[in-house]
Design brief:
Length: about 180
Amino acid sequence: MTRWTTAAVVTTASAVLVLAPVLTGCSDNNSPSSTASKAASAASSLASQGASAASSLASQAASAGSSLSSQAASALASATAEAGQKLDEIKNGTNVKSDVTLGTPATGSDGRTTVQVTVRNTAGSTKSFAVEVTFRDSGGGLLDVVIVTLSDVPAGKSADATARSTHQLSGDGGVKAEVGQAVRY
């Protein structure tokens, strides 16, 4: 005669619940205490295996999280460097940060953040603009940097463009947009 007993093991350190059927065979001692003893022994074995597996999973999750964090930092550094390089390429530009306004940031269906950029050309001739837009979390942490170029804005006129983050952004309290630099040339 074969009996199936279910052993339940909960490891609190990793919040893993393991339910396993334990096969118990007939012997001369088929008492409930003998069956319970076999189930407890199997449960103890499963508990140590479950704790080891949970520890391994936690280690893998931490490693993956660290890798994603590293990738995000690398992407931000790359975007920041690229933005700086684009602004450095502009010769004989004038700092016109005060001639730039930003709208309210919004998240698109693709998860990327956008914001309207408006420049006002206060020069006496047609000019182009390069505007660095920084996206920050509510604590001021830098999330992304993009450059928006508006070409051939007539003297005394305004022009609009849209700044779009290079990747999906999120932050407690939402994402804020700021003008980092603005150059008229």
